[in-house]
Amino acid sequence: MASDTAKGLSIEEATVYDLQLAFRTKQLTSREVVDFYLKQIETQNPVLKGVLELNPDALSQADKADHERKTKAPGSLSPLHGIPILIKDNIATKDKMNTTAGSFALLGSVVPRDAGVVSRLREAGAIILGKASMSEWAFYRSNAAPSGWSARGGQGKNPYTMDGPSGSSSGSAISVAANLVAVSLGTETDGSILSPSNVNSVVGIKPTVGLTSRAGVVPITPRQDTVGPICRTVSDAALVLETIAGIDINDQATIEASKYVPEGGYAQFLKKEGLRGKRLGVVRFFYGFSGDTVMHKTLELHFKTLRQKGAVLVDNLEIENIEEIIDGQSEEIAMAYDFKLSLNAYLRDLVNSPVRSLADVIAFNKEHPELEKLEEYGQDLLLLAEETNGVEELNHAVLNMSRLSHNGFEKLMITNELDAVVVPSSTFSSILAIGGYPGVIVPAGYEKGVPFGICFGGLKGSESKLIEIAYSFEQATMIRKPPPLRKLEI
């Protein structure tokens, strides 16, 4: 399908900056952009399954944006004004769409209000195009269910390889990669932004826990859950992050984390020379799997680029307790306890819902085994969480994770005076997850057509540095290419 409008401007692969320039020069309207994405979705989504549900009000929102652009003072509108965005299906929208975390159990439920991040997007004038598909219950239903699958959405597909897209923010990554939308929102508990961004050749930012509001998000654990952007470029991701970051009275963690939000937002850190003087740690433990492969050779070349751009690489570092972190079960134990408590609280807060507790969800699945593919995939994680009781085991697990983070990643960063670590793909997600630390992943190459990324992780509140580093790397390499054109057959 042609990616050009009648005026000859390509929307495919267009960044937020490109679209805003086209709006200002009257080459494009928001309605034309939304129309383009709707056609893209109609053509590709039956196979890719990245979009779960479309917003019936998207075109009217586009018309409103076009009207505002004509009537408001130049420069008074936000960078996301009139830009279509896709929202992961576990993030509440108080509109005509559902919020189901991919499960039929929540179909028809009524949320009390927009999620905090959605309110901020609406205030900025962004167009909510629809809901992205996802791994059901944010990949916390069953160990047997495939990544990127949900009962409502089916099996999402990676547009580069036509196989697994990784999860749980699978649809958000599929959709921006395949140009079904300009930008998207995902959520991460452990790897759910970083991993799908890695394999779908897009940019993902996993923010410090509490930097962005989780109010109105179907939860797993408040200790690790975070909402962040999945986009095609670092610049777009920075614009989305600065729009959604900040205090929300419905999420107490945002009050403490608001100290990390820089005055003037994150776009000011999009510096081509952002790598200069940065100290980057290389933990070789995470490079062992790549061996003598294209990925391994490419990453070594990227190290040269990082040095050429002025970064100092501190190589052969070790996290002393890495084996204990990787093999330990504290994260798993705490997650099971927190999921039951926080999901029950979320469900109780709904205006209307077919289910009001985790026990209800489990019962629903048993009552609708064919709908939810229960016999094939089961619901072992839901059952594990429902069986939790008491707090002693939870408290021990939480204290242990805090100890592991303090004596592991934090000690590594502080002792070596690092600005960030640089690691391949999403291998570092658990380290970042258990401590609530941020990470940014950027496309880094392709191994026989399969994308892989490079991840920069840092201490809490270091998003500004990570964006500087990631943007400078991205601009020096410009690795990302759109998925191959192929005839999509259902």
In short:
InterPro entries: Amidase_dom, AS_sf. The protein is of the alpha/beta class and 490 residues long. It is 38% helix and 14% strand.
Descriptive notes:
Residues 32-426 form the Amidase domain. Pfam families: Amidase (PF01425). This is Amidase domain-containing protein. The chain is α/β, with parallel strands linked by helices. The chain has one domain: Amidase signature (AS) domain (Amidase signature (AS) enzymes). The chain contains 17 helices and 13 strands. The strands form two sheets. The chain has an eleven-stranded mixed beta sheet, sandwiched between helices. Strand 9 (279-283), helix 9 (294-308) and strand 10 (312-317) form a beta-alpha-beta unit. The radius of gyration is 21 Å and the shape is globular.
Fold blueprint:
Layout: H1 16-24, H2 30-48, E1 51-54, H3 58-71, E2 84-88, H4 116-123, E3 127-132, E4 149-150, E5 154-155, H5 170-177, E6 183-188, H6 194-199, E7 203-206, E8 226-231, H7 234-244, H8 253-257, E9 279-283, H9 294-308, E10 312-317, H10 322-327, H11 330-349, H12 358-367, H13 374-377, H14 380-386, H15 392-415, E11 420-424, H16 429-435, E12 439-447, E13 450-457, H17 463-477
Parallel strand pairs: 2-3, 2-6, 9-10, 9-11
Antiparallel strand pairs: 1-3, 4-5, 6-8, 7-8, 7-12, 11-13, 12-13
